[in-house]
């Protein structure tokens, strides 16, 4: 079942806010909404030599730990699988160092967590 239009709009706005924040910090966007049947990456960016895979999480309330806490081990695995698939189609970047960041968005602002998880975490 597709996301409700208002929910999709909120998600797109959160991704736009995250992208603008990261580009303001000097990262360059390589791809958006990379999707495979086994996982999805919201943003793929370049930070110097690093290819950065970014998960954007929007939470209206932080009662259950907010956006950063919502990226569990299962979600990390899915992001890593999608990152590997994306890199396999980008031979020029296949040997670049990678990083997995999370940007948590809420009505109170945006919180960027560089290197939020590593391959050792999954």
UniProtKB/TrEMBL annotation:
PANTHER family: UPF0102 PROTEIN YRAN (PTHR34039)
SUPFAM superfamilies linked: Restriction endonuclease-like
GO molecular function: nucleic acid binding
Entry similarity comment: Belongs to the UPF0102 family.
Name of the protein in question: UPF0102 protein N788_06535
The species this protein was found in: Arenimonas donghaensis DSM 18148 = HO3-R19
Entry-linked Pfam families: UPF0102 (PF02021)
UniProt xrefs under HAMAP family: UPF0102
Superkingdom assignment: Bacteria
